[in-house]
Amino acid sequence: MSQTRIDRRFVKLREEGRPALVTYFMAGDPDIETSNAVIAALTKSGADIIELGMPFSDPMADGPTIQTAGQRALAGGQTLPKTLDVARQFRKSDDETPIVLMGYYNPIYVYGVERFLADAKAAGIDGLIVVDLPPEMDEELCIPARQAGLNFIRLATPTTDEKRLPKVLTNTSGFVYYVSMTGITGSSLATDTRGVSEAVARIKAHTDLPVCVGFGVKTEEQARAIGVAADGVVVGSAIVSAIAAANSPEGAADAVSTLVGSLARGCAAARIPVGA
Amino acid sequence: MPDPEGMFGIFGGRFVAETLMPLILDLQAEWDKAKTDPDFQAELQHLNAHYTGRPSPLYFAERLTEHLGGAKIYFKRDELNHTGSHKINNCLGQILLAKRMGKTRIIAETGAGQHGVASATVAARFGFPCEVYMGATDVERQAPNVFRMKLLGAKVHPVTAGHGTLKDAMNEALRDWVTNVDDTYYLIGTAAGPHPYPEMVRDFQSVIGTETKEQMLAAEGRLPDMLVAAVGGGSNAIGLFHPFLDDESVEIVGVEAGGKGLDGEEHCASLTAGSPGVLHGNRTYLLQNGDGQITEGHSISAGLDYPGIGPEHSWLKETGRVEYVPIMDNEALEAFQLLTRLEGIIPALEPSHALAEIVKRAPTMDKDQIIVMNLCGRGDKDVFTVGKMLGFDLS
């Protein structure tokens, strides 16, 4: 498939010598005005890739923070077409920052896979992360997505062993998302990040794709530590919590700017040796 | 049989997070070995006989038959099993698998609490710590079963996430499993979830249909004309139906919870009023809105209160082999009282739905025709609910 905004962004980051800051938030939490304000604030304060959460009533791999964000979005009337609108709006002012949709399969399946891929592409979406579609189910969405020119980004986890890794990587494109622990989103990161570096090296032995690491990253220090070995640092629950604590679209944008600014500094410092 | 990816037609499959995929493949490998291992089968058979009390009787309901004035009605009496329902059949099979796999901790989800009680029971019998996820709403309305689980040594986690019902309990059990991948066995209570659960649970429950066939041949010298069972997740029904699927002369009817009627949202008839979707690891008929968000069902019976259905039932609906029909809360409640008075058997509210369908059909059939209903659970757990509906103060 041809290059996507994701591929181009990682080429640029490699030239700059720093890991990507990948930021997640839930579309429509708690309303569209907030989402439009947040997505603008993210790129201004240093996010390199946007993960746009698609709310689902039964998010089986998510912790309480993202569960309640999804419930707020659904209570506010969020739907899949409205989530695509957030991307479409954003693309009017930014045609370079990659947007990845992240969520669960059922809303896509019910919308219709072919129609979804066409509409997502037209809205300016670059990639998909669908939690409940392992490689065994590639015919469902992964292969049609690649044919439509969208990256299908796969999760690799600590339970993905050497034998299984090639299967997980086969149809993956854009980047690989390494989930740094078994568990749900929003858990605490282990203080020892060496295991993460080893896992990144293990995956890199099998693929040339960038490897981004997420689950549990909340602070500048953690972003810096993870960014030493990873090609990207994914932050989700911390951003979602900042949005939840705000009480207006402007307040959410301000809170996100402060947090993402500090995470971006962590990423920028990751490749600079300590004391240099 | 499902295909190697666990698909029954377009239904079933393995729609789970990558973290769980290796665990599900391990489970499948162990199950493939166990099902052809004579030692495993012998141990299960021994437990079925001496712990559960199998075979359960096939009982001719003489007075009910006379009352309805049509087909002869037989009950497969799985309500006489240890723990009071068919749930134990599956739990014994799975706990033996957990033991084979060297797991040291059992988790389960439960709605009405019958599967939770059966899980806690087998965990106690085999010395496993057991944690049961149960919606906070269900914890409140099924207090006696919560206490039973605690007596049996299980830890009950009330689930407040989502709306606090069975589907939320299942989400929470999956979250536990994804976190505790090394030592934990997830004992799913119905013939749903990712492959191989639907096939495996069906096989453990098929003892119901296999016994029924033998008992019916012994009693009447022929196969029944019709099978009827209630479907929530669908494990008792698939257990009765499966050994008869190739017997074309046998008409098969699954009865869903019609709740307060199919017009609104207060029902649990995923097959008659839902549409295909993906939830809890499989594609199947679901109650959902146009945006693919799962809706909450309603039924007088907490055991039928699930917005999905086992994938094999979805397949059997599509092929037309099984007919699925809804029964309303009030019809089930009437059937509950009818059986209690006529046969001296207090049925659970789940099989009361199946019975209500028989009340409609039996009178239209000939007297030499035979219906078998799966009486899959006893009604002790439901006396408070029924008392409340009938205006008795039991507090």
Automatic annotation (TrEMBL), chain A:
<keyword id="KW-0822">Tryptophan biosynthesis</keyword>
<comment type="pathway">
    <text>Amino-acid biosynthesis; L-tryptophan biosynthesis; L-tryptophan from chorismate: step 5/5.</text>
</comment>
<dbReference type="GO" id="GO:0005829">
    <property type="term" value="C:cytosol"/>
</dbReference>
<feature type="active site" description="Proton acceptor">
    <location>
        <position position="51"/>
    </location>
</feature>
<dbReference type="InterPro" id="IPR002028">
    <property type="entry name" value="Trp_synthase_suA"/>
</dbReference>
<dbReference type="GO" id="GO:0004834">
    <property type="term" value="F:tryptophan synthase activity"/>
</dbReference>
<keyword id="KW-0456">Lyase</keyword>
<dbReference type="InterPro" id="IPR011060">
    <property type="entry name" value="RibuloseP-bd_barrel"/>
</dbReference>
<comment type="similarity">
    <text>Belongs to the TrpA family.</text>
</comment>
<dbReference type="InterPro" id="IPR013785">
    <property type="entry name" value="Aldolase_TIM"/>
</dbReference>
<protein>
    <recommendedName>
        <fullName>Tryptophan synthase alpha chain</fullName>
        <ecNumber>4.2.1.20</ecNumber>
    </recommendedName>
</protein>
<dbReference type="InterPro" id="IPR018204">
    <property type="entry name" value="Trp_synthase_alpha_AS"/>
</dbReference>
<feature type="active site" description="Proton acceptor">
    <location>
        <position position="62"/>
    </location>
</feature>
<comment type="function">
    <text>The alpha subunit is responsible for the aldol cleavage of indoleglycerol phosphate to indole and glyceraldehyde 3-phosphate.</text>
</comment>
<keyword id="KW-0057">Aromatic amino acid biosynthesis</keyword>
<dbReference type="Pfam" id="PF00290">
    <property type="entry name" value="Trp_syntA"/>
</dbReference>
<comment type="subunit">
    <text>Tetramer of two alpha and two beta chains.</text>
</comment>
<keyword id="KW-0028">Amino-acid biosynthesis</keyword>
